[in-house]
């Protein structure tokens, strides 16, 4: 294909390890994240010229745990802007991997398009031996340029695999094969210039959601609390006093709560805070009224969302004025 018949793809940079730099090629920890611009990342991969006609925009330059509501909302607006460009086939977002899961899931709920959105990052800084960023970015462009990936919601392409944003978990703090879909499995692979997919996400996403963040400049405050043996519930009351509008409680097993935590949660609910129970375990489902009386306590069962993804959905639901019952329906749907 000649350059002007190649699909036009926008690559939005936000920082992270993919843009990170160490002091030597063997430094793999303790490097600085978010150093190189997205234009430099693309310039380092000449093979991309045969795959797509690329545009780029630096939306942020941070480590992903520092992406707050304002940046998240700005990023969503920029993704939607590019997707609205008639001749733009898809968007790629380069992200830090630390909090990639929740950013990808947020975009999965607020992007208003059936065009492809791919998120990628790196576990090794760009200066390291066998840096994984260039190949991840190359694969992300191949995925975004393929018509096969349209309409599947936001996709994460890491380590050759294509994973739905709702399903992706960062399983390991350091290794290049950290991103997996432990419950529902990966959707497929990008192998050289080929995308091979085997299934589709079933939960509602992108332009089928009711969420519209285009006019928002902040999201309601939602905090996460861990449940554990001998917990006191004090953290719940403190967060409510600090202004939390929603809470996710990561409870043991099927998000069971200790008596002290249950009491604190009930008080929070009575004061108007919406509380979602999510699993402390790495995977699994939390169902309404199973091992905990949600009807009595006024709590919401978080289905299969991890605590960090439950936080995203709860914040969006609260931003749209939903009651606890409506939040439960959102967790049953998204
Ligand atoms: N170490 C992180 C990463 O893997 C930094 C970040 O999340 O921004 O990208």
Short characterization:
The protein is α/β, with parallel strands linked by helices.
Strand content: 15-25%
Question: How many structural domains?
Answer: 2
Whole-number mean pLDDT: 96
N/C terminus separation: 39 Å
- Ions and ligands: aspartic acid
Q: What is the spatial order of strands in the main beta sheet?
A: 2-1-3-4-5-6-9-10
Observed structural traits:
334 residues, alpha/beta, Rossmann fold, 2 domains, eight-stranded mixed β-sheet, four-stranded parallel β-sheet, 10 helices, globular, binds aspartic acid
Can you walk me through this structure?
The protein is of the alpha/beta class. It has two domains: 206 residues, Rossmann fold; 112 residues, Rossmann fold, CATH 3.40.50. The chain contains ten helices and 14 strands. The protein has an eight-stranded mixed beta sheet, sandwiched between helices. The protein has a four-stranded parallel beta sheet with strand order 11-12-13-14, with helices on both faces. Helix 3 runs parallel beside helix 9 and helix 5 packs parallel to helix 7. It is globular and about 60 Å long. The mean pLDDT is 96. Aspartic acid (ASP) binds next to loops.
């Amino acid at each position: 294909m000649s350059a002007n018949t190649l699909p036009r793809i926008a690559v939005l940079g936000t920082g992270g390890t993919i843009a990170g730099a160490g002091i030597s090629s063997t430094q793999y920890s303790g490097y600085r994240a978010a150093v190189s611009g997205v234009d430099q990342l693309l310039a380092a991969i000449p093979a991309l010229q045969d795959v797509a006609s690329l545009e780029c925009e630096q939306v942020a330059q941070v480590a992903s745990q520092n992406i707050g509501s304002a940046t998240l909302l700005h990023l969503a607006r920029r993704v939607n802007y590019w997707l609205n460009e008639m001749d733009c086939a898809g968007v790629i977002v380069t992200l830090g991997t630390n909090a990639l899961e929740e950013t990808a899931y947020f975009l999965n709920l607020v992007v208003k398009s059936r065009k492809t959105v791919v998120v990628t990052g790196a576990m090794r800084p760009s200066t390291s031996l066998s840096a994984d960023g260039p190949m991840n970015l190359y694969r992300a462009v191949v995925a975004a340029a393929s018509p096969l990936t349209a309409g599947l919601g936001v996709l994460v392409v890491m380590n050759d695999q294509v994973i739905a944003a709702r399903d992706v978990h960062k399983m390991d703090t350091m290794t290049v094969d950290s991103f997996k879909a432990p419950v529902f499995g990966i959707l497929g692979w990008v192998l050289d210039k080929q995308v091979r997919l085997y299934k589709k996400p079933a939960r509602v996403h992108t332009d089928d959601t009711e969420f519209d963040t285009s006019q928002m400049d902040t999201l309601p405050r939602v905090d996460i609390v861990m449940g554990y043996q001998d917990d006191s519930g004090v953290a719940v009351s403190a967060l409510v006093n600090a202004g939390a509008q929603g809470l996710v409680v990561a409870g043991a097993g099927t998000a069971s709560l200790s008596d002290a935590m249950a009491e604190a949660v009930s008080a929070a609910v009575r004061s108007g805070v919406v509380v979602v129970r999510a699993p402390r375990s790495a995977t699994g489902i939390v169902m309404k009224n199973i091992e905990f009386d949600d009807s009595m306590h006024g709590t919401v069962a978080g289905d299969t969302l991890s605590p960090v993804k439950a936080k995203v959905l709860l914040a969006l639901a609260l931003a749209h004025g939903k009651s606890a019952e409506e939040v439960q329906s959102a967790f049953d749907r998204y």
